Every structure is written in structure tokens, then in C-alpha cells.
Amino acid sequence: xxxxxxxxxxxxxxxxxxxxxxxxxxxxxxVDVRAVAASRRPGFSKTILRDSxxxxxxxxxxxxxxxxxxxxxDAARKGRIGEMEAIFxxxxxxxxxxxxxxxxxxxxxxxxxxxxxxxxxxxxCHRRIVAEMIQAETGFAVEDL
Length: 145
What we know:
By secondary structure, the protein is of the alpha/beta class. The chain has a single domain, classed as Cobalt-precorrin-4 Transmethylase, domain 1 (3-Layer(aba) Sandwich). The chain is 47% helix and 16% strand. It has a 5-stranded parallel sheet, sandwiched between helices. Helix 2 links the parallel strand 2 and strand 3.
């Protein structure tokens, strides 16, 4: 089976814009890959995000184990992307992260999915690494919305 895995960041977007992009791409499930599914941006904390997506016919799954550990988030905030990536790649070797990655792969194989994190551009975000790992297993194309 071939397909496309989408990724999306909400850094510079409002919730209706994100939902519109997901719907336009035909996404059936949003996989939240934040370690902490809370946000100062209106609409992007876990419960309201889940409820808003479900009202639009998009399922929601939070895979906390695919989030960046605190030290990686701190490095990213300071612009040390290489350090964040090293911390995140080490984290991905843990049993929890491997189990969550297996769950994400199963989801992607069953439903058109998008990975969500904060950063507007996937190039500086750990979701790119998660997407690449899923791509290596599934052969799916990756498209950033």
C-alpha cells in the first residue's frame, strides 16, 4: 500500500486554518506528537483540540512518547536544533518511544494521518524525524502542510 503521511505545525496558525488544511488534504486522524499536549495558543491544548477535530470528522490520537524530552525542547527554544535532534534520536531508542512509533506506523497504515507539533516548519522540528522513521517503515511520501 502506498500513501502520504502529512505533518503540520500550528506556530503561526489559528485552529480553523489548521483544520481547513487537514480537511483539504483528506486527513482522517491527527497524531499529536507533543510530549506535553498543552499550548498557550488558543485551541491547541489537548481536550479542546480533540473536541474541535472530532466535530469536523477528524480523529485525534496523542502519542506522548513521540514527543521531545524537556532537555530537547529547551535546546530547540535556544535555537540549538542539532542538539535537540541528538536528544530526540536518543529518546527514540527507549522502549516507550519504540512502542509509540509502532502505534503511529499502525495508524498511518490504516488511515490518512498527519503528525502535529508546534513549529511552523518541519525542518526544525522533531516531527520531521518521526515522519522519516515512519516513511522508512511504510514507504509513504511525507508532505508538510
